[in-house]
Every structure is written in C-alpha cells, then in structure tokens.
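Practice problem: predict the structure.
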Amino acid sequence: MKFALKQKIKKFFCGEGDMSIRISPGRVYFLWALFVFLIVCICLRIYYLMIYNPEWLISRGDDMIVRTQEDDIHRGRILDRNGVELASSVPKHSVSLYRKSFHESKKSRKELDEQLKVLATLVGMPYQTLRDRVYASQRGEILLAKEVEAFAAAQIKEMNIPGVSQSKILHRYYPTAEVNAQLVGITNIDGIGTEGIEKQFNDYLLSIPGKRRIKKDNKNNIIEFMGTYQEGKKAEDLYLSIDERIQFKAYTALKYAVEINQATSGSLVLIDAWTGEILAMVNSPSYNPNNRDDYESRRARNRSVTDSYEPGSTTKPLIAMGALAHNRINWTRIIDCRPFMVNGKRITDSHAMNSGNLS
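Answer:
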C-alpha cells in the first residue's frame, strides 16, 4: 500500500514514463504559483488588519493580558463622643497560589516541598493538606488562607515561593470587646456589617473601591497601568453620642445587677435629659466580638432596642406631672383609686384590689 502511494506521488510530479529522471515543468510551476498566491493572501490579510482594522488585533491581545484591578476596600472607624475607638480595621492578608506558575518553576521538587512545609506553618494548615491542595487540585488559583497576620504575610513574601500571591483584606477589631458588642455590632469575614451600628451605617463606613485597567504577563506580574476608569469613595469615620467612660460603668453595674438578681438578661439606657442624647446603652449577657467562638444570636441582640416591655409604674410620675402642669389637679387633691369600669372592662390596681382614696 505504501509502495502504491509512493508511485502515485512520483507520477503526479514526473508524469508518465521514466519517473526517476522526468519532472513535469507545468506541475512545478503550478505549485510555485500556489505558494506565492497563499503568501500574497497572508500578506494582504496582515496589511488589512494592521492598517485598516488594528482594533481587532488590539482587542484580541487585550483579552489575554488586560485585567481589572480594584483598590483595597477600607472601612471607617466607629468612635465615641470623645474620639475613643470602638471599632477599627487592622491589616490582614489572604494567600493564594497559582498552580501553573508553581509547577513551571525551575526550582526542584525537593526545594518546593521544603518551602511548602514552612508555608503550611505560616498559614496554619497541616502540611499534607496543603500539599494535596497544591498537587491534586485542578483549579488554576487555590486559596490557601483567608486571614493571615501581617508578620506571617511578610515572611511568606520573603520566601518568594513561585505562584504565591497575597491580597489585603479587612479584619475588624473591637477594643472595648463585650462592653459595646450589641450596640456597635459586628462584620462578617468579607468586612460587611451584619449587626448593630456596623449594619445600619454599612454604606457610610465602607469605601467604594476605584477601578483601573492593567496588563499582566503569564506569571501574573503587572507590566503596565492603563489608567483609572471608575473613581472610588473614601470610607468615613462615625462618631456616636456614647461616652465610653459612662458606658463602661453602666455595663459593670448592669452585669452585677443581673448576677445578684439571677436575671436572664438586663438592659440599661442612660440619656442626657437636656439634649436627649444617649450616653450609654448596654445589655447583659454580652459576648466578645473579637472571638466568635462564643457568639450566640441571643447574646448579639440589642435588647434595649429590639425587646418590648411594659413600663408599669414608671409612667405614673409623668402623668402626675402633666396633670399638675396643666392645672387639672393640685397637690391637695384626693383621688379615688377604687376599681372602675371602662367600656365594660374592670380596671384594678395590680398590687391591691381596693386602694381606696389616695393623695
């Protein structure tokens, strides 16, 4: 079969007769003309794309190397009326690994494994788990750690492990811990407010990142900045009417009162009578927002705001003062406090069925 194919090829080039010495000039010219025609077509296509339609080439090239880069997201501080920090952000880093850059490294397997052992310690992951992720995973980018301390991130950077990159993330810190836990609230791992002031004023506290176009090479290195196409919004600090000194004393007193009275919970709100400003708002039991292990929804609820309760006798002085202010009664007036009927319902004193006449 191979011999027959060889014979047909020789017959095409040489024609009939002695195929070892005879070559058909017409067929040779035909092949030359075909090659020249193809080259001319390619040159014309290149000329057209470069002169008349260069945008197509640029767009195809940009699709492979142009990326969108966003600024780091920042979150404003929450402070009391005197500027004492109640919530602030501390820098932490997420660590990722690009498998292609890691496996195409010129370093030996033994050297890479030694670096992975150190990396596993710094990100708080068992070495075998980290190794399985790097070598067994089929994903292009592997997230190794979501929150890494700044000192560990600096050590990872110095190791210069192929394919390993870092990005800053928000980590919220609450200096006053359980004292302001329900009032200030908390954020989730992505830095978005989920409780309290953090949630209510999330848009005010959170920045809007600016966006810019950049070019990256196949190793994820930035090779060119192409300009900003979306301006960002700066995060703002939020000042509360709370006085942290009063807040701390109020929480201490409330916690003691709940314990000695064996109450399930307690709330305390302290208001400036002249301005209406809230100087303290505390609840017990509370929790430490810096340690989510003891987080419970019942502890995170701001009972001063969410729970309803019967004011009871606390309203009696307000009613009495209103009646005196409008001259409806005077200090010598004797009031009949016996049970009476309103719309067919009997109204009585909760402590005594018949209090009689009272001043």
